[in-house]
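Discussion board: Methods & Data

I've been asked by a reviewer to show the raw model output for two of the constructs in my manuscript, not just the figures. I'm not sure how much to include, so I'm pasting the format here to get opinions. Each protein appears as its amino acid sequence followed by a line of discrete structure tokens. Is this the kind of thing reviewers expect to see in a supplement, or should I convert it first? Here is construct A:
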Amino acid sequence: MEKTKEPTRVVCAVVERNGKYLCMKRTRSRYAYISEHWEFPGGKVEQGECDHEALLREIREEMRWDIFVGRKIAEFDYDYPHFSTRLVAYLCRCDDEDSFKLLDHLDYRWLAADELESLEWTAADRELLKYIGAK
């Protein structure tokens, strides 16, 4: 498969509550380098959507959950072997931290910033850790 030239815009929610961040474990994928790795929830921005709309839609589709989208904390390109992504991360909050459903993920954890490095992250999400104070 040929790598796409233009990076795909992907938004993710860095959901923080009581000093802990929501980490989601991906399901199996055709690419081993992201399959069953940890990520911050989100997804692709569709044609005509702004980041905010896309993030709310993706979280509702994947988790049946409503979040509050705050400020942008990072935006960068990351090249995987088969595709490129422009990851745009927003600091988000929620009212009820465990009211979501695992529709597109295998597991989840709420971890403090100094615990985040303990997970096997997708490469782009691992890069994002430095923007949220992970040690």
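Construct B, same format:
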Amino acid sequence: MQTIYFPLRSIAFFIIIISIILAISPIAAYAYPLRPIAAEQSIYTIEVYPQRNRLIVRVRGQQIKAYPVAVGNPSTPTPIGVYYITYKGTDWGPSFGPRWLGLNVPWGNYGIHGTNKPYSIGQHMSHGCIRMFNRDVLELYEMIPIGTKVTIYGHVLGAPKDSPRDLAEGDVGGDVLLIQSRLKSAGYFDGICNGKFRASTTSALKKFQRDQRMIQDGVVSQHIYEALGLIE
């Protein structure tokens, strides 16, 4: 039997062609995790109003659903801002009910989920997550795709009538994110604005305090909020 030899260049070309075919074939879809739906492709949006304990679902701007919810208590508030559904899970445990819709809050693990404490719905009793009746979260879970925009309304520094809290290294939250953003805009902070008060934020704050002729203690006090133009 005659032996057939293939040039190395031909073998390499053959391998490349096969790789391309596999990459664009339906089989390839099973080899990689599904990507989240892009936010602009989702026709759904969610709005959460902590002061009203209400979650609104809209389709192309038109309200289609409204649900009562429980939100964070004063010491562990629900994070204000714009986020996206980045994960959907089932049966995380009794405390989270039958479904979980995770939010991409950069400083913690927050989501919309069910509860084994239905009496908390309509109150400020969670640790920052948004609780729903289990029957409601089951409905929401089936309705809402990954990539859906979630806007949580409110005053980022707390209720308008309340003073913002003092902040120091170790704290997390939307208020920390806002401080980082202001320090970054002023040229003091060159890290990632992620709502996590770490050593880099402390260092930037102390530089700001030095230039403002304040005590360099690395604590965000009422004077710091005022100096950064966040309160009057």
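Answer (T.O., handling editor elsewhere):
This is acceptable in a supplement if you add a one-line summary per construct. For B, something like: The radius of gyration is 24 Å.
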